[in-house]
Structures are given as structure tokens and as C-alpha cells.
């Protein structure tokens, strides 16, 4: 299926620079796996970043550079020796993207009628706010807004809202300006990988459902 929704320039630039936090970086990694257009865009951002570094005078490394680098490596190069979730893939009902091979994925839990979630833990970043969401075909999700940014990659099925239709491979970035009421496509259940940036709080019904469950 054709990919129509991509990460913003700002997000890709931050991913290239290693300053995107672990949760959103995982969502972007999954998108990059399936999107040659964005792999090409990322290559250009990395070239620009490299050229800027070459021009800069030597400076002491930021104190957390090592941690951030390790965080990215943990996502980019999952250890081949550790694949705890292969067994669970059939239980999840879809094939995990390579970028998620080293993630710990919890069981599906009830979130609302026709709506389930599963906690995703990223190796080395236990506090990252990442989850899989699964909505039943045809489900109308409660309207909600955001404070902070939410990243969502469609893995299977489809989702539509006022801004368009999202199919597998599409990545949606929703920020403060987006107040939406998503509807799951009637053809199949929809599973997506969602990450919240930093201090994101969800408003409305979805937020009230999620907050006590996942501590966001
Ligand atoms: Zn893309």
C-alpha cells in the first residue's frame, strides 16, 4: 500500500542528530524500515549534520551523549542473541517490525469496548512511553486532543480521521493543534505503535482511560 504520511522534517532531523527520545525514535525506526522515501530524506539530514560537525571547533562532548548514543544503538542494532518475543508474534496477530525485535511486549489488555493496548518496553529505556494499540474493525474512538506530541505508526488495518486515512506504513504526528476522532477501517482490526513524547498528557476520554492504566 502507498505510504502517504511521513515524519516531519523536524522529527527526521532530530532522529538524525540522536536527540529524539527513545519512544518516538522507535516509531520513526519502524517507519524507516518500510519507507524508502524517508530513508533517502534521513541520509540527507545525516550528511548535513556530518558537514556541520566537520566545520565545528572541537568541543567537549555533552554529558549525556553517550547515553543517547547507546539508546539509539539499542534501537538500531538489536542483539541477535536476544529475541524474547518471537514466540509471542503469533499471539499478537502480526509480524513484528525488525526495529522492535529487542522490545519487550506485554499481553493485550482491555482498554474499552473493542479497544486494547499492550505495553512496549525498549531495552535500555524503561521509562519510554510506548504502546501497541488495537481497535476493532469499524470502532469509533473517543475524540481526544494532545498536549505534547504523539507519534503513531500503523502496523495493520487502517484508521481515518478528519485529516485523512492512515494505512500500514503511515506515520502520524499529532501535536497540540490536533483534536481528532479516529475511526478504525471496516475491513480489519487496526494495530498501531504509539509513542508519547516527554510530558505528553492525553485529554478527554482516551486520556482518562489510559492514564491510570499506563501511568501517563
Ligand atoms: Zn516516510
Overview of the structural elements:
This is ChrR-like anti-ECFsigma factor. Residues 102-195 form the ChrR-like cupin domain. Pfam families: Cupin_7 (PF12973). The structure is a single chain. With 216 residues, the chain is of the alpha+beta class. The strands form three sheets. Strands 1, 2, 3, 4, 6, 9 and 12 form a seven-stranded antiparallel sheet that branches. The protein has a three-stranded antiparallel sheet with strand order 10-5-13. The protein has one domain (1-216): Jelly Rolls (Sandwich). It is 32% helix and 27% strand. Mean pLDDT is 79; it is low at 77-87. It is globular. Helix 1 packs across helix 3 (36-55), helix 2 packs across helix 3 (36-55) and helix 2 packs parallel to helix 4. The protein has six helices and 13 strands. It binds zinc ion. The site of zinc ion has 6 residues, from helix 3.
